[in-house]
Amino acid sequence: MFAPLQNDTLLRALRRQPTDHTPIWLMRQAGRYLPEYRATRELAGSFMGLATHRDYATEVTLQPLERYDLDAAILFSDILTVPDAMGLGLSFAAGEGPKFARPVRDEAAVAALEVPDMAKLQYVFDAVTSIRRALNGRVPLIGFSGSPWTLACYMVEGGGSDDYRLVKSMLYRRPDLMHRLLAVTADAVALYLNTQIEAGAQAVMVFDSWGGVLADGAFQDFSLAYTRRVLAGLKRDHAGEHIPRIVFTKGGGLWLEEIAACDTDAVGLDWTMDLGRARALVGHKVALQGNMDPNVLFAEPAQIAAEARRLLDRFGPHAGHVFNLGHGISQHTPPESVTALVEAVRTHSRAMRGLA
Question: Which residues form the Uroporphyrinogen decarboxylase (URO-D) domain (predicted)?
């Protein structure tokens, strides 16, 4: 059904196998920093117009690969597709970010939650298949979802939040409701990712973007436990290929060893964690992904290259590193800065392996 993979460097790195260079891709690599993305979004009329249109989603997913020598494509979509399919009424207001018309804040709303019919998300799976075909084996395609806890934050708050007051109030006042919400959401996320795999995703990533706002103890009970539940429900193999899983918790360095033990293939790191120390803590148990501060890309090309080399040196010439940013790329990033980064990673990682 799909063309043979020509560049499997990412998949080999996620399996902790030797590679000729350190693979690189960037969180939010298809986005507003690219003028071609902005042009396509204008044609689509809105973010959701872009994300729900198979051909537009395919086009913007491939745009960064036309500019840069990246080792993966990541599905262009949004982390809030699952709660939207649950009937919460997702919308995007200009300059305000995502909003839910029907947030989940009481017992009745939690009791009404169900794993949604995946037919409501067919536009996502159609995009996955379309992107995989358009890639024609060039690089692997990564599918993704928000973690149950991160989705719960948006579902309860009704949008983004500065203090997470409403979702944490439910967590502490009615932990039974929070556990019910998270269980249903975890089962929905697992089904969603499995359906992406069936549609053509060759690796999947769980974005626990707000796990780091939790207290120690609460993180394990309300975030990590439900990420584990997702991972336990995921396909290990599909169409004869192992499907690597990546877990990224922003602000999760404190719990690195616990995250690494949750049956994932790779752990994504934000920029606050030292790569050398991280590798010493987890050894060869998992691959590590990361972790340049996205704001380094506002420096001069020579400084960007120097920081890339420093991070590669901190990890060392070992198998199991995927170079990435420590969070999503800023919309204000100069596109030429990404060129400098990708070239530095490719050149220095090959030199580290004696292949310069």
Answer: 23-32, 142-158
Mean pLDDT within 330-344? 98
- List residues forming the annotated binding site for substrate: 28-32, 78, 154, 209, 327
Q: Positive or negative CA dihedral for 150, 141, 87, 109?
A: negative
Mention every residue, 6+ apart, whose C-beta is less than 8 A from residue 187.
115, 229, 233
For the segment 174-187, the average pLDDT, to the nearest whole number, is 98
Q: Domain ranges for the chain, please list them.
A: 9-352
Assess whether pLDDT exceeds 90 at residue 1. no
Are the C-beta atoms of 56 and 49 separated by less than 8 Å? Answer: yes
Binding site: what residues are annotated?
28-32, 78, 154, 209, 327
Sign of the Cα torsion 155, 157, 158, 161 reads negative
Distance CA 88, CA 90 (A): 6
28 is catalytic: yes
pLDDT for position 101: 93
9-352 belongs to which CATH class? alpha beta
* Catalytic status, residue 78: yes
Catalytic residue among 12, 41, 229, 346: 41
Q: Which of 78, 208, 265, 270 is catalytic?
A: 78
